[in-house]
Fold:
Amino acid sequence: MQAAPPDRAVTPLTRTHAHNDYEHARPLLDALDQGFCSVEADIWLSQDKLLVAHTPLGIRTGRTLQALYLDPLRERAKANGGKVYPSGPPFHLLIDVKTDAKKTYAELTKVLQGYADILTVVRDGKLEAKAVTVVISGNCDRDAITKQQVRYAAIDGHPSDLDSDAPAALVPWVSASWASQFKWNGTGSMPDAERTKLKAYVAKAHKDKRLVRFWATPDRPEVWRELLTADADLINTDRLADLRAFLVKKDVRKP
Structure:
């Protein structure tokens, strides 16, 4: 797999998250073509390989995390002077662990160390940002990640982390399912009480320098608009081109 040409004129949109990115026709590359700055890959540990798939039935030997994501991202970063996009906004790779947390993260650690040239690293609490920041979700071995003196991955937090004193370098995101927090499904106007709750939720996360992402959101412009208004950081979507068109029309690009 080859990365998209570095001279392609695309404006990166930092509020975009490609949900289950690997299910698109061209994993990663479709997202890059649309200027997405965050992509999501589910991984399964199988015979010491980290394979990308949504369910066990979708596992294929050649679809490794390295082949689909890490290798093309490295190629892209080398072509763009150490950035995924020439203009250099942050880029996130959300890795959703589907198999045993400890065993999978132990193998993942070894893999990520091989990409130290492009991955954001924390050494003894000091963060060095690079082309790609990895965030671990799903079956996340929070204890192992927290204890690492040198680590190439951070933790995808839960709503309970809104009250956590963990540093943002360790828990940079707070993610939750939309339905766990809100009843509104995008039909009609968002209730005032829920709009107020959304804004307070985002503000609380931002106070601790954490990004906000909701998953399983109703994938429609009415919800995207409310997320933008509330200053949510990442809009979760399967509709890459539609979200890009919406954001470009709004001309909203969170720095």
